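chain below, 306 aa
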Amino acid sequence: MKFKGILLILFVLVNLKITAQSWKYSRNELQFGIGASNFLGDLGGADAIGTHGIRDLRFSMTRPTIMVGYKYMVTPVLSLKGSLITSLLSGDDASTTEYARQNRNLSFRSGILEFGLTAELYPFTEKTSHSYKIRGVWGSKAITLSPYFLAGVGVTLFQPKTLYNGEWVKLQPLGTEGQGLVGRPEKYNRYTLCFPLGAGLKYLIDRNWSIGFELSLRYTRSDYIDDVSTSYYIPSEIEAANGPIAAILSDRVLDPSLGTTGVEQNPDGSNDYLQRGNPNYKDAYSFAIFSVHYRFRKGTKYIPKF
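prediction:
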């Protein structure tokens, strides 16, 4: 009996060690997700003065998103994920009743491609195998949920376009705010750093499969994802440099008599370049993504947790 007791204690200790270390045999995970995006920038927004904040989010501007990612579990509370996300961002002054922005009458869409690296923090540890109930029906699985927070850095490629005479026209080459002309900034880059922040929840189906939902916001270092940032510029000079379409798309005002757009000449001959965008705020966008995850396992058998 004494010998059997020793064997039982050794068996329990070995099982506990295997269970505690099982996450090391399932560190790698492949993810695929679909969802929606929304843009927070100068165009469209709430029926009030723009804020570049959540209040400016318009569900009518929601567009599709696809994500693939590969995650590595550093510890049970920390994982690193590399991801590739393709999406479409959109904004339209016609979506707001705020008179100045509606009269400005600008709109855009931009396909984006984001390469990102994020850290995921699991405050209650990430579950890699099911727990089982002792009370009630022996062996029934407990619901296994893993909430987490994320933060990281990435690079976003973008290409703003607008609809003109039934065709989508690329805006960056047109210098719609006088970019590239004397006294004006150079034409902006079509890539920017982005900084993801968000939270998510994972549900474990079995040892290999899980599903998740994630909400995140991307702050960027560009104010030109929508091709709008600073002030209007002289249409004739834009036309001379970049053509008549560039001049037309630089100012698409509905009612010029309101005096809210364009360039005004002062009595002393100087020009007053009216506000076209707000350079004090950089552009941002958000994702809501449902995902399916496959975890690669290797090297050992697993003891269920009780």
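The chain has four helices and eleven strands. The mean pLDDT is 86.
thats it, cya
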